[in-house]
Amino acid sequence: MKKRAVQEATFLILTALASGSQHGYGIITDVIGISAGRVRLRAGTLYAALDRLRADGLVEVDREEIVDSRLRRYYRLTAEGTDVLAAEAARLQANANVAMMRLDPSRRAVGT
What is the rounded distance in angstroms from the CA atom of residue 58 to the CA atom of residue 85? Predict the structure, then answer.
């Protein structure tokens, strides 16, 4: 995967999978919780993103099971997906730290 900023929906999907494998509906509800209700993925958006993330090697199918005569597929992060999520979280945190320092001059380090 090319080094570039990760879109918010992608970041939230990867974050949802960071705690373990989940099926689509679980990811959708976890993203709602992570974003405090601000982001609500539609099923089509989620599965298109999961297909792209699989093609990029960031997620993979963990297992499949049949529930009520329907296939339920569980996804998990790959090692590369974990690395991308960690790098993006660090990038966002660094940017947020700079913003907070600029908003509150008393937090500025001496000499900056």
Answer: 9
